[in-house]
Amino acid sequence: MLGHLHIENIAIMDNVSVTLENGFLALTGQTGAGKSIIIDSINLLTGERSSRELVKSGKDKAFVEGVIYTDNKEVFEILADSGIEANATDPIILSREITKDGRSTVRINGRITTTHLLKEVCSKIINIHGQNDNQSILDTKFHGLFLDSFAGLENEIEDYKKVYDEFKQTENLLKQTDENEEQKAQRKDFLEFQINEIEQAELTVGEDEELLTQRQRFLNNEKFEESINKSYYSLAGDNDFEGACSLVNSAQKGLEELSRFEPKAEEILNRIIEVKCELEDIKETVYDLKNDDEYSEIDINYVESRIDVINRLKRKFGGEIEDILAKKDELETELNSIENSDANKKMLKEKLELLELDLTKRAVKIEAARKSAAEKLKKEVSYQLKDLEMEKVEFDTQIKRCEPGMRGFNEVQFLISTNPGEPLKPLNKIASGGELSRIILALKVVLSSKDSVSTMIFDEVDVGVGGSAAQKIAEKLKSISKDRQVIVITHLAQIASFADHHYLISKNSENGNTYSEINLLNENERIDEIARIMSGSVITQSAKNTAIEMIKIAKEF
Predict the structure, then answer these.
(1) Domain residue extents for the chain
(2) pTM, entire model
(3) Where does 1-125+453-557 sit in CATH, by number?
(4) Strand, helix or coil at 303?
(5) How far apart are CA 290 and CA 299, in angstroms?
(6) Dist. CA 415–CA 429, nearest whole Å
């Protein structure tokens, strides 16, 4: 569960910290108070894309931190594989910082990591159901993904994709062999020219770096000579003065004599002997560097010419020498394919036929699993709809055959009929906002049942809903919260009254600065807030009495 949330400089939230309890949590507040900022902040924590627009005006950076409590073994395995220490007895600390120039820094338990890892970890802990999520449920292109996730087909789909990729690659190679002879000849000449161009360069990995080093050494040769001579003669001395090594040697002799009658000099003598050995070694190393003839005869014209050749090939074939050599391998593979096209063509046809059989077999198996899962999904969604007082609504999943693709050969679409006798229609054809909200909630509940997430966050779940429909949604959310944390941003009193914990998001202004804050309400404050939601800015005693009664009914549920 999400146990704590801290937000700094995100939109109008300057410095907000809130401890989040378990169970059913309702977040309410007036329009513009900052409810959406909470969702934006949690989205950042879960690895979603950041935007510099979130950074409060006048601030250099924004920061969000979350404290997660979980015993999910998958989470700890993922973290361990990434070298991050974590265990079930301690919370996991997630943080993310974004700057006004768009840079993002992610940390897990204090260690800098990637948004990809953050997203992978949070996908096992938190599910956010917001407006975008609603749109994806209405978009038929996502229905297949939802059904496959519900069916637990991730591994089967992954294995299918590998075969499909190989099938498409083989198919493309076969098409290349079917090009006419003139095109083959032209392509062959072009490939041979490019391969020859790379071969003639005789590239070696790391050569470009060595050439740049030689150029730099050549350009700074005079300074190099001056510096190395200064270093060497300071150590070795010359005819005019003694060097450091000689002076230390004299000091050693003096200390040797001193140690005969002064015991304390013995320790100093040992130290200076160590220094003498180290200096002698340094002197020899500097001498070797001074007399190193590796760069003594640099042909700068050759160096510059060679750098030009390598840079030209980099621009043409890739950013590094490794990329150029990899391109050469790629070109040679294609050339070999052309030269052996007749022999390859028969082999490719046979391979393609085998892959097609394998692909069809896998797709048929996936289709059968989808149909089985669709029946189960129908029953479970129907049960949830009945719970939401929509027992006459019929839900089904349409699975059609289509051309083989990345996920099989099925088109999947969720269908709904809201009245008996009416034909099944696509979800996005439902006119009633209240009906749509409940149907989407039913689908979310069922689809999320396959997740092991401990926190579900709902935003926009009550759009277009009121009356008994709102009551049923509140009851459903309350039921879900019995075994996981449920956080709901709502503008409905019916939903807020069912919460175990009620938080108020409010907006304030001070000294020209507008800021939001979030506070956990006590019982009396909660009554006032629910009354405000019902009656507006003027809270009447009648509204308060209704709020008290609604909370009482919710507690008895």
Answers:
(1) 1-125+453-557
(2) 0.62
(3) 3.40.50.300
(4) helix
(5) 19
(6) 9
